[in-house]
Write a structure and sequence with these properties.
4 copies of one chain form a homotetramer. Chain A is α/β, with parallel strands linked by helices. The first copy, chain A, has helices spanning 13-28, 47-56, 65-70, 86-95, 110-123, 137-147, 179-182, 186-201, 335-350, 358-377; strands at residues 2-9, 33-41, 60-62, 76-79, 99-103, 127-130, 154-162, 205-213, 218-225, 231-239, 245-252, 257-263, 272-279, 282-287, 293-298, 307-312. Chain A folds into 2 domains: 2-130, NAD(P)-binding Rossmann-like Domain (Rossmann fold), CATH 3.40.50; 137-290 and 292-331 and 363-377, Dihydrodipicolinate Reductase, domain 2, CATH 3.30.360. The first copy, chain A, has an 8-stranded mixed β-sheet with strand order 8-11-12-7-13-14-15-16. Chain A has a 6-stranded parallel β-sheet with strand order 3-2-1-4-5-6, with helices on both faces. A two-stranded antiparallel ribbon of chain A has the order 9-10. At the A-B interface, strand 16 of A face strand 16 of B.
């Protein structure tokens, strides 16, 4: 067993999820490489940061990410900060010869993502983009069904990712609602997941037409933000500079059509990342809120007994599942990060490129920007 | 096309459902025999009865069922009254040489059902027991799956029929809550359906053990009862003499085990007539509230893709469905009666015995009485 | 009770559904006006047509619709033919002073619909457009919830109507796949329902952008078409001239955004007419395949107990339901037509205009044509 | 922060789940007490055991549980072995003054459980029984609803726990199928969970009547058993000495009735631990396979909008949830153990008795034995 030393930057929602996955990966997916959780990096060197590091299982904390990415004893830099910070961190880490894992979106602009890709390629380091939903057993099973020809030619793809955490107009102006930090709103945060899944499961995008809408244009300023949506409003208001709701149509390279919804105003939908894929031989439907299940319709069943089957994707024969519990003992959200790090470590072990990686980050960003351009031009745009 | 003249006795919930089915059967299932709706029979010769007859599509009304069952021009007597009246009507009709259709339960006592069976057999007339839920396409499809060996050996049967229309202690003491009229409560009214379905789909009962409970022992007297649960409370109260809730365990002749629930205190369950059947090769699950669907699990599917499939039982290849609408255009409650009368007319046409019939009525009653005996004896009882 | 004499034109799928509704309406919704089913009109005066008329409950059959619409004894002309025939029939009926009911779509072109509206207005007759899905109790309940302010301001509307009856490339070139008869394909047949529901429940459309796709461009010619999708392929092939799949985005007059899918390639979806409406105070979700249910989310519930509630829309307090059966005894597809005719007769009785009517037909058609224009122009188009 | 030293006995399915929970508890529920994972104890001192200890996060391994429970540095002994071993281990641990956590069932006989309870009480140590399903947020929410009076008087309780891992008659004779190791089969393994939940949520049991059945009486012997149902058949067969399927009726101390099913022959049910509770004011329904959801029916909703609501029990206001992820990001099976250890540590911190504990183990066992007695006597039996 070889230890591989990890540094993480970011300690809120994503920092917590990544930290957990680093702790858990070798417990459930023992391999030749075992991550050692060296240092957690935050903005300020506070006692709170040190406490968080300890709680999350890191040996040390630090507040100077530039120093951290250059530490000789660090092999992997894991970037779990808001998107606007990714560019500089990833490039610095690559230049220091570290393997880089980066939360999605890779960056807030296409230009940035291209520079980042170039940097990791030039440095010859491994790179991974954290689109954790590819790593859900049910999603990986869809990929397998498609590879096996079970859906046939795909005709129609619908992806919808709805949440509802900002319906209340009094919910404050957190960084995710500001363009300078977040790049975009519903589109870049959750629509990006829908785009990545469509690219993973279906095909590259040929062209898109979309609309972006901000329903609540002014919100209270933030008094306190503890991450994980635990936030308090202060006095004064500010302008919401991102979209609350973005929808678009698509044509894919494989000839299929796509319909996409992303909204933070989907009342009652907590984490409703859903897709339905309709092909000549079969269909599937998935909902993240029931992520251990997959609905599968097989047109080759006898007509009398056709229907959508609810597969409980918890059998040891299913992707990733054998490492966990017996059939019917479901897994949760954070397991997807464990799977991702398992794939990352396996790629390192085999000297292959992890998937998805920065190339996917660039391609996803071209789609995001095409949607944004289309929302302005009122026309179809090519990524 | 030959006309066949029908008289019906009863004009409330069941009278309405049967009348509709007589009107509809030849519209959707045209055959050699076409029913002619001659006369609707009620308790009193009122204008209201005549109006009801006209509204339901009957040529005449009458208030003397004895006169009606002896009319020379009547071929079929359809009894849609409360159970305590069935015995005399069915026997009189049989003795008058009429074919007899009888609502379930066949009667309120085993002795009565046996006399009725004897009477129709002696008279050589056709007889049918209206257990309409056998005639649901999804239920008939289960019967076919079992015949085709798709479930293999059956191990475990669960039937639950829950409603909630009397949870409110102020709901008045309608005839269904009085032993002298209804025989029993949840058991005979809805549990009887669960028993009949189990006999139809699984096996005869070998032995049962049960408990019967009356939660609300005293209720307001009825001021007005328009049928169909539209009823008003008056002053004074009376004793509830039937069970609110009855459950029992069973062993079947085929070696399988059974678990049965029937309750009128199942809050939120409107017409929750459900069963799940588990066999060595497959399982099914059904819920009357979604009567156009059947859930089917096939153990012979590859392990990776096993699961309960929701079959939309609305394809033209499904039982009874071809007569109605294209796939996905669902049918409703009252269609089950149309199917039953179609089967009845087909049996008449082919000179065979309709199914289910009075023999089933006797057998169902033996199970009902065994449950009642067991509730008193505290022991397993044989039907 | 006053008789009102009805003639119907059309005797296949829609003719069957309308005929049933004329037979049933006064049985379940007795009113002052009672329809008398005078004559069923088809293309050719055959024995088969006469038999169909008899089976469906009509007194006579005829093959000359022009003669029929001018018969003095006819009060209402009910047009249940393919869309390309509606224009001439409706105008002739109006000019003959008859009230007119017309299946959707009102016509295949906007110009035609406008002429039809003008004709009925000029003649001063009542007119109704048969968008039967407005008459589903669950849909009418949504309308009531919105009227009562239960959804608040509506932000996001998603309508999807998917079927799968032509996925097989060998399914023949029926009239619904030919532009000259059907106007358009998925869009005009099922997308039109989604549009009408959105106008009924949400708001008028301001602007749309869409894509129309034909996946299978050539199909076998029809050898025999019995309606109701019972059709046989012959030799030779022909060109499919309508869309298999149409999707579009919308902006509504009330400021909300819309996303629409319509496809005949939605494998496993039999009659999947669904919508979800998200507002500031609540959300609803509906699926025609479970048309007796409505999912309702109320943001004003305590946070601890929020969630989508499955309302079994079968209580006597629900729209239309009191006329049928007790709670939990579901109704089916064809009941929606009965409700529509009940509303029509009530409007006649009260001398008001039925809803929806030809004005809705014109408005729906403007949206359909805007989608078609947009699919060609690649730009947003105004209805 | 004070460290508290833990030793665990058992390293298969339950050992893995408990170990994970010890690792995770302070990461997500930081408190004053932090467990230190000292030693994992197995049957033989092998390299494999040492490797497992390391993988699961334990400092050492040992193969002499008696030595381990007497180690001075150990504060808590966590027993995660098959039931027949619990008695001696728990008593030895108690006598050594250790706090004891014991997997369910507490023991295989009532006599044993009583001795164990006596031992921990005499030693004055804390004791906990690991019925982890009490610690599911949705289940804890039910408990809260009942405490708040939201269900009113409870009338009817149905618990069913079905799995299907031994339907195949070739599945070998693992220890869970042998009375000497497991005590009983479906009853003690999964029925015990249903009993514990009913006691937790509803009431103590007054009397029961049941049936126990073994469908497959002879099975292949085991060649290799890696735990977690990963097992290979060898040559020869042996007798199945436990029940495959056990069902029973119950009367509770609070006047409600109960119906219970437990089966390992429920084809397609992977971990179908379900209950429905019907009360005068509301009802709930739960299914472990969708353990992040709770269905709740509130009779006090207006009649027009009543129905079962699917609560996504992932809000920060829900029990235990605040420690994990934002709304809609579901948790999995193993989290229930984390919650249990959190409760255990909190009890230690506050010097209170954890819940459930050995007293519950005794009471559960009285119900299990009453069901067994009843299956033999054919009569109702009191626990």
């Amino acid at each position: 067993m070889t230890e591989i030393n990890v540094a993480i930057i970011g300690h809120k929602f994503m920092g917590k999820a990544h930290s957990n996955a680093w702790r858990q990966v070798s417990r459930f997916f023992p391999g030749k490489l075992e991550p050692r959780m060296k240092v957690l990096c935050g903005k300020a060197c506070t006692e709170e940061l040190e406490a968080t590091a300890r709680q999350f299982g890191w040996e040390e904390s630090d507040c100077d990410w530039q120093r951290v990415v250059e530490r000789e004893d660090i092999d992997v830099v894991d970037i779990a900060t808001p998107g606007y910070l990714h560019h500089d961190m990833a490039i610095a880490a690559a230049q220091a010869g570290k393997h880089v894992i980066c939360e999605k979106p890779l960056a807030n602009t296409l230009a940035d993502t291209k520079e980042m890709l170039k940097a990791v390629q030039k440095a010859g380091v491994k790179h991974m983009l954290m689109h954790n939903y590819r790593k859900i057993p049910a999603v990986a099973l869809v990929r397998k069904f498609i590879d096996d020809g079970r859906l046939g030619d795909i005709y129609h793809y619908h992806g919808a990712y709805l949440q509802d955490w900002i319906i209340d107009p009094e919910f404050p102006l957190v960084w995710r609602l500001q363009k300078k930090f977040a790049g975009s709103g519903a589109l870049g945060d959750i629509g990006a997941h829908a785009i990545d899944l469509a690219r993973y499961l279906n095909s590259e995008f040929n062209t898109v037409v979309g609309q972006m809408t901000t329903f609540i244009k002014e919100r209270p300023l933030v008094a306190e933000d503890k991450g994980l949506r635990q936030v308090k409003a202060g006095s004064g208001t500010g302008k919401v500079t991102v979209d609350d709701d973005t929808n678009f149509l698509a044509r894919f390279a494989n000839g299929s059509v796509g319909v996409f919804e992303s909204s933070r105003f989907g009342g009652g939908r907590k984490n409703y990342n859903t897709f339905q894929i309709y092909g000549s031989k079969g269909s599937v439907a998935f909902n993240l809120e029931r992520m251990n299940e997959l609905e599968f319709y097989d047109r080759e069943d006898p007509q009398e007994e056709q229907g959508f089957k609810t597969i409980n994707v918890t059998e040891s024969v299913h992707p990733y599942v054998g490492a966990w519990w017996p059939a019917g003992h479901i897994i949760g959200y954070e397991h997807t990060f464990v799977h991702a790090f398992h794939d990352f470590l396996t790629a390192l072990e085999n000297d292959t490129l992890p998937s998805p990686n920065f190339t996917d980050g660039v391609k996803n960003q071209t789609v995001l920007e095409a949607v944004e351009r289309s929302a302005k031009s009122g026309k179809w745009e090519k990524p």
